[in-house]
Amino acid sequence: MDCNAARELLPFYFDDELDRATSRNLETHLDGCADCAATLIELDALRRTLREHAPRYAAPQALRERLQSLLPKPLAAQPRRMPRRWLAIAASWLLAFAIGGATVALLRPQGAHDEDQLARDLFSSHWRALAATSPVDVISTDRHTVKPWFAGKVAQAPVVQDFAEQGFALLGGRIDYVGSERIAVLAYRHGQHLIDVFVLPQTNAAAIGRHVQRLGYSIDPVSLGGQPAACVSDMDEAERSRFAGLLGEARQ
Question: How much is the pTM?
Answer without folding.
Answer: 0.56
